[in-house]
């Protein structure tokens, strides 16, 4: 049974999410503060964590950054919840290391779908060690390590999956719909700007040379170019 931690200071939302997750068949634990959640994550790492952005004391964004800097849990799938709905806020949330971003109020069924998608992808095991390479960008699919011109690059789960998919299909243009369906794992009906924001942060992390390899094909999608 997969274990999910909810870190949310609103008692009503916290209890609702815990009950809903248990109803979906997950083992759920809920915490009021980021400090409590981080301590439990270190003690017993979950399969996925849900962080509210605005928490008393340490906020959710700071907590997620700490997780991404901690070796044994840095690949933990994370969903951030927030009432902030501006595009810049979403970019900040995704850039800090969150794998998905949901604006309150949200539907429980949509949350469940996103959880299933993240768990399915984070739990997928590679059958063999496979290295992907594209003009200085190197990906080890066994260890999920990424480097660009010899520099290690830390990516979130979604950024990593986007890069791998583009590298595996580097001979052609990959459409926006294809990326949304393949990476998000279901018929995505949310804002398509989510994809643009992930591509933007991926380019930034790859740096000037690596990021410029991801070309936007206007009205169609993306492809890798030399």
TrEMBL record:
Cross-referenced InterPro entries: CheY-like_superfamily (IPR011006), OmpR/PhoB-type_DNA-bd (IPR001867), Sig_transdc_resp-reg_C-effctor (IPR016032), Sig_transdc_resp-reg_receiver (IPR001789), WalR-like (IPR039420), WH-like_DNA-bd_sf (IPR036388)
Annotated GO CC locations: cytosol; protein-DNA complex
Domain (OmpR/PhoB-type) ranges: 127-226
Start and end residues of each Response regulatory domain: 3-119
Any one GO molecular function term: phosphorelay response regulator activity
Keyword Phosphoprotein among UniProt keywords: yes
A Pfam match: Trans_reg_C
Record keywords: DNA-binding, Phosphoprotein, Transcription, Transcription regulation, Two-component regulatory system
Keyword DNA-binding annotated: yes
Residue ranges the UniProt entry marks as DNA-binding: 127-226
4-aspartylphosphate modified-residue sites: 52
An annotated GO BP: regulation of DNA-templated transcription
SUPFAM superfamilies, sorted: C-terminal effector domain of the bipartite response regulators (SSF46894), CheY-like (SSF52172)
Domain of life: Bacteria
UniProt function note: May play the central regulatory role in sporulation. It may be an element of the effector pathway responsible for the activation of sporulation genes in response to nutritional stress. Spo0A may act in concert with spo0H (a sigma factor) to control the expression of some genes that are critical to the sporulation process.
Name used for this protein in its record: Stage 0 sporulation protein A homolog
């Amino acid at each position: 049974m997969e274990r999910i931690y909810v870190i949310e200071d609103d008692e009503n939302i916290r209890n609702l999410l815990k009950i809903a997750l248990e109803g979906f068949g997950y083992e759920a634990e809920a915490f009021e503060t980021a400090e409590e959640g981080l301590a439990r994550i270190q003690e017993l790492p979950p399969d996925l964590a849900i962080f509210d952005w605005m928490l008393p004391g340490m906020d959710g964004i700071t907590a997620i950054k700490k997780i991404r800097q901690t070796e044994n849990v840095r690949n933990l799938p994370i969903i951030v919840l927030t009432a902030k709905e501006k595009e810049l806020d979403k970019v900040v949330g995704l850039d800090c290391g969150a794998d998905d971003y949901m604006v309150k109020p949200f539907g429980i069924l949509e949350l469940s779908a996103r959880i299933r998608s993240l768990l399915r992808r984070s739990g997928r095991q590679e059958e063999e060690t496979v290295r992907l390479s594209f003009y200085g960008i190197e990906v080890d699919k066994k260890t999920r390590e990424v480097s660009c011109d010899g520099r290690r690059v830390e990516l979130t789960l979604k950024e990593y999956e986007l890069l791998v998919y583009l590298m595996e299909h580097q001979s052609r243009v990959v459409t926006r719909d294809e990326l949304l369906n393949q990476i998000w794992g279901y018929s995505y009906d949310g804002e398509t700007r989510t994809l643009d924001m992930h591509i933007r942060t991926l380019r930034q992390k790859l740096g000037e040379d690596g990021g410029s390899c991801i070309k936007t094909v206007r009205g169609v999608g993306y492809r890798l170019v030399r």
